[in-house]
Design a protein that fits this description.
It is built from 11 helices and 9 strands. By secondary structure, the protein is an alpha/beta fold.
Length: 262
């Protein structure tokens, strides 16, 4: 555990005697370091020192004190890097939600990074399904109207029923500050920011990813100035685990190109 800005952060550091530049691993929403350890083990065997953490609200790290935005998380990652001595530019791996953080760091704090690998990254806001926006608008009008006439209990029942039917599994699983944090995060469209990323980026994507479809990977490839996309056939949203050996070797090759041992 490492104290970062008043939060006890659970982190894992492996292969610190490795000869290559350190790699910082960032997990996806609802995940934790456990889902990064298979990749970490591969990278360590290939000579890369690895650091991974449970982001606030996940795994063994407590939730933030108030609802956060994705920018709050990105700032926290920088504080974590300072706390564990990652002051020289590091290589970064971000999966899904961790990819959102990578986009922000690559655009706003490029001096802290060397290269980025983003796997099945979130951050591209998909178009709302037909009729969904009208349904949401009508729901909010009725919910707020019930509150105004003193029927808060009925308004709460309506909210619960609406969320159960139309809310995502991640939204319904989140509680307290993490539910509003989830809303803050998913409503942030980072595609415009992707054009400001100032470091080389490798995008790893599963062609069977249903959570962040391959079309979103292609959108990021087109937006990021220095980006390449590798499609892992037969892989889903956790493409780096579905094709673990391939993903690790591809990352090792990418990180090593044009770099000297740390």
């Amino acid at each position: 555990m490492l104290d970062v800005d008043g939060l006890p952060v659970h982190c894992v550091r492996l292969g610190q005697d490795g000869t290559r530049r350190p790699v910082l691993l960032l997990h996806g929403w609802g995940a934790n370091v456990d889902l990064l350890l298979p990749l970490a083990d591969w990278l360590v065997r290939l000579g890369h020192p690895v650091t991974a953490l449970d982001l606030p609200g996940f795994g063994a790290t407590p939730e933030p004190p108030a609802p956060w935005t994705v920018y709050d998380y990105a700032r926290f990652v920088l504080k974590f890097m300072d706390a564990c001595g990652l002051t020289a530019p590091v290589n970064l791996f971000g999966h899904s939600f961790g990819g959102r953080l990578g986009l922000i760091l690559g655009a706003q704090s490029p001096e802290r990074l060397h290269k980025l690998v983003l796997a099945d990254s979130a951050g591209v806001k998909p178009p709302a399904p037909s009729g969904a926006q009208a349904r949401l608008t009508a729901y909010k009008a009725v919910r707020d109207g019930l509150k105004r006439v003193g029927l808060s209990g009925l308004s709460d029942q309506l909210r619960t029923a609406y969320n159960a039917r139309y809310g995502s599994s991640d939204f319904n699983a989140a509680q307290g500050v993490m539910r509003q944090t989830f809303v803050n995060v998913v409503n942030e469209d980072l595609l415009p920011l992707a054009a400001q990323v100032q470091r080389p980026v490798l995008l790893l994507w599963g062609d069977r990813d249903e959570d962040t479809p391959l079309s979103q990977g292609r959108a990021l490839e087109a937006a990021i100035p220095d980006a390449g996309l590798v499609v892992l056939e037969g892989a889903g949203h956790y493409s780096y685990l579905d094709r673990l050996a391939d993903a690790a070797r591809i990352m090792d090759f990418f990180y090593r190109q044009g770099d000297s041992p740390a």
